[in-house]
Amino acid sequence: MTSILLVAEFDEQGDVTQGALQAITAAKSLSDAQVTAVVAGDASGSASSLAVDGVVTVSAIAAADNGIFEQVTADLAALVVSSSPDVVIFSKSDFGSVVGARLAFRLDAALAADCIEISGSGGSVSVTRPVYGGSALAEFEIASSPAVLTLRAGAFEPTGDTGSPSVESHDGEATVEQRALVSDTVAEAHESVRLEDADFVVSGGRGLGGPEPFSVLTDLANVLGGAVGASRAACDAGWIDHSHQVGLTGKTVSPDVYIAVAISGASQHMAGCSSSRAIVAINKDGDSNIFKEARFGVVGDWEKVLPSFLATVRDLKA
Amino acid sequence: MTLRIVVLAKQVPDPETPPSQFKIDESTNSVLPPNGVPPVVNGFDLNAVEAALQLRDAGADVEITVLSVGSEFVMDAMKKPLAMGADRLVLVDDEGLDRIDAAATVKVLAAAIEKDGPFDLILGGRQASDWDQAHVTLGLAEVLGLPLVSLVQKLELDGDSIALRRVIPDGYQVVSAPTPSVLTITNELGEPRYPNLRGIMQASRKKPEIFSLVDLGLSDSDLSPKLELKRLYVPESNRQVELIEGDDEADSGVKLALRLRKEKLI
Ligand SMILES: Cc1cc2nc3c(=O)[nH]c(=O)nc-3n(C[C@H](O)[C@H](O)[C@H](O)COP(=O)(O)OP(=O)(O)OC[C@H]3O[C@@H](n4cnc5c(N)ncnc54)[C@H](O)[C@@H]3O)c2cc1C
Question: Which of these, A250, B70, B178, B264, has the minimum number of CB atoms within 10 Å of its CB?
């Protein structure tokens, strides 16, 4: 048997995240998996139908924590010590990246981040993760327990199953001192369609040459009912806010259609969009890497290609 | 009082190496150094050096130490932080230290900080561009028992504490951290400055201070990996692009839209 503690995140509406549903699929691929989901106390409602064997609710995960996950790290560490799972699984979200790493180092456990494949059983877990920005893949074996893993968004299909797990609550630990304190959270206004959830993403890169062309990309995204993305080069240049960055150190998107305009297709960019159903590239350099990843492409200057493309899409959608 | 800052920096293969030059020796599971492309300091670590220099620019009395663990250091690369304006370069240089995992790296860094510290601030880049894990700086905070703030895009001294902005997926958090703390710095902070001629001259005269594992009271047995690397390889891509060609570029745009419609993609 492989006992797995799966740390499931919920969104602001209290719905389980896609990342958590993907993690369930991943967890169940381990041999003879016994999956316990750990959830925030006040999300136990939606957790009671998760396709897992058990649910443990921990109140501190939800409690508005004005530190940076210090309380929840302490609570999870205590839970891991008391339940000694073989594997602990997180999504590679902001929360999962920080808490997964802290938990592993606190417990002197093995840690593998951003896994795209996992297999094996407790005591011998194999993982595959992209390295060197996605230029290479590395396979590791972890022979100690617990193995702490974070999973890349979109690498596993979200489970469509439901279940009726037993629900238990775990008492939080004594309140830990919050040392770095969050005094305010400022949200950037985002479009009606969230980038991560969009079925169509129109992204622009350095080849756009400035901020103005993003308004054409926005028009196209609006006609398609999608969202606007960007390469890191375009964000670093200040042409568009960093919250639009797609890639290894930006957002992971998996739309039906990903339209890359004047983006070279560096591996670190593709890391954020390679699970799109179809990638469409417009780039003036026929040798650029984006054409190795795209399903459809036009070799040409975006200034000449994009206006007629937009007009035709508009007609087709009218 | 001088604020002592240590910036963690790693020597990595240049991530801008063209894909055609990126090669792996599958018999040793390692990346072959690309011909004629020298290694660099990990880009996000230069953002961390920049963060430290910005505190100095804002008037703080800071001493900036750059600390790296590895072997086969290329001084032209490693001296870049000094040329940008850092004061000291400390290298833990021993055979095989370029191949240890994150857990072992944290042990070596903790020992080096113990020996060379105490420091008021420990800064690292958000992740290294070779193994892309983002574990070392986070793990170091745990091992040293210090507060941690990741993904810092802005920082300012505010009395005895540091006022920070931390990037979150759709915005930022305003955070106050005490000293000492561990911070990871992200590229949203802004481009690292280019070294000027004076900085380059000064850096060329500075000698790195070098520790061996023995100097830190460590031996190879302290550095056994938690993860065993079984295979490292370049994935094959078998995607075949369909290029759409019209009479001219504008016509290509029209035909592309029609093709996507035919495929029921739009
Ligand atoms: C550790 C690490 C993490 C990273 N994370 C990310 C990440 O999350 N996301 C990300 O995007 N990048 C990331 N990068 C950076 C990445 O390596 C590339 O540098 C970046 O993606 C390049 O952006 P770009 O394609 O817009 O620019 P470039 O590579 O400069 O490409 C511009 C393209 O525009 C084309 N072009 C120019 N003019 C025109 C025109 N008139 N018409 C049509 N095409 C034109 C050119 O042919 C070229 O292909 C990361 C790098 C590192 C080292």
Answer: B264
